[in-house]
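seq as requested:
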Amino acid sequence: MSAGLWASFPLLFLMATVLRAAPVRFEVQRDIQYSQVEGMSLLMDASVPVDNKPVPAVVIVHGGGWVRGNRRIDVAPLFDPLTEAGFAWFSISYRLVTDVTKFGLGIDDVESAIRFIRAHAGEFHINADKLALVGESAGGQLAAMAALRLPPNTVKGVVALYTPTDLVSLLRDSNYVPAQIRNSVQGTPWESLILAGLSQLSPIENVRRDMPPFLFIHGTADPLVPFSQSTAMCDRMKQAGAHCDLYPVEGAGHGIRWWSSAPRYEAYKRRMTDWLHSVLDDGSGS
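struct tokens:
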């Protein structure tokens, strides 16, 4: 090898290393229709790689007490951390509850979004075998139930932020459940039937050994969804032989947008992305 080539070798090696380590470039796509049901177009926004190298992906489900919420506003604090960590993400809208008979339809919509994303993985430049769910508040319940209903390994993990896991106890003990739902249940002849339905829609009542791993992130001072909702669910999962982790946000209330006002609460973002990497890299969680 000539002296000139030898001299250029360290530079070539450095360039190759930089190229390998170059961050993935993402672009945001808006208003993608993933399903149409009851005459309604269900839409999502996505942040996907510009190049063809597939990356892991996260489906984000916003909260809002099942009756309201916005896929762009309510979960906005999650977008940058996920992108910076190298994840594609899809933030979805779903059918909101207009009366108690509509409760639970959002789970079907989350499942539809997952199937659509997996079917179009090549177009989105994502790895369909490295897909996780992140749900906040009511969206966490929808995400958890979708993960529990889907065949094993469809999603590799679920991040559940201050998630209602026991709807029956929540209905009885918390003001989180919207008044129109509470009033349509309590004191009615079909109260016991509705409570049985809520039990079926409670993640804690659907735990199984082969469910995906969960990371519960919950403010210890949450006045709406008690911190015990996450601890009880994680305990039930461990009893069943499933895997879960719990990250308490000390002194925090309800909502990641509220957490953004205090830097001391922001560490959950790094915990979330580290956990997602551990789950999507080796499928086991940390």
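The longest strand covers residues 26-37.
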